[in-house]
């Protein structure tokens, strides 16, 4: 089974991802509020310098691996090398490292069935899952 998600990587998506990652790595409410203010402007600047800004990102998930690709670049990760996957109300955070996450918005999937299939793949993978 392969699940695919496609979306345009916009500044809005970059900021949303930054917000969720900040919540995940900052333990206290005060630190999260402070980090949110600092990280938001940093995120905007990095987005504008990102060669993938406003381009399509395609994610493919199957039993063995996760692939992501953009125009001119791609990567493959095996499930066992991921630290954690967190599901939030509107997306998934995929952590290949403790403080680095990739954002996959739920709106990138073609159906709720695909989202449910991804959850099944995550659970079967053995990766730590907070969903």
Quick gist of this model?
This protein is an alpha+beta fold.
Description of the molecule:
The protein is α+β, with helices and mostly antiparallel strands. It has helices spanning 11-25, 29-49, 112-125, and strands at residues 3-8, 56-61, 65-70, 73-78, 84-88, 91-97, 100-105, 128-130. A four-stranded antiparallel β-sheet has the order 1-2-3-4, covered by helices on one side. α1 runs antiparallel to α2 (29-49). The longest helix is centred in the first third of the chain and has 21 residues, at 29-49. The protein starts with a strand and ends with a strand. The mean pLDDT is 87.
Tell me the radius of gyration: 15 Å
Q: What is the strand content?
A: 25-35%
Q: What does the largest sheet look like?
A: 4 strands, antiparallel
Distance between the termini: 20 Å
Beta strands, count: 8
Strand order in space, largest sheet = 1-2-3-4
Q: What is the tally of helical segments?
A: 3
Set out the fold topology.
Blueprint: E1 3-8, H1 11-25, H2 29-49, E2 56-61, E3 65-70, E4 73-78, E5 84-88, E6 91-97, E7 100-105, H3 112-125, E8 128-130
Parallel strand pairs: 5-8
Antiparallel strand pairs: 1-2, 2-3, 3-4, 5-6, 6-7
Descriptive key words:
globular; 131 residues; 3 helices; alpha+beta; single chain; 38% helix
């Amino acid at each position: 089974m392969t699940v695919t998600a496609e979306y345009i990587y916009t500044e809005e998506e970059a900021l949303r991802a930054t917000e969720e990652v900040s919540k995940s790595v900052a333990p206290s409410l005060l630190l999260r509020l402070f980090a949110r203010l600092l990280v938001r402007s940093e995120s905007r600047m990095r987005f504008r310098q990102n060669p993938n800004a406003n381009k399509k990102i395609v994610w493919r998930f199957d039993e063995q691996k996760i692939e992501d690709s953009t125009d001119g670049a791609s990567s493959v990760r095996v499930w066992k090398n991921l630290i954690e996957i967190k599901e939030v109300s509107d997306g998934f955070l995929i952590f290949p490292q403790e403080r680095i996450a990739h954002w996959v918005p739920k709106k990138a999937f073609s159906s709720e069935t695909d989202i449910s299939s991804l959850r099944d793949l995550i659970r079967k993978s053995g990766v730590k899952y907070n969903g």
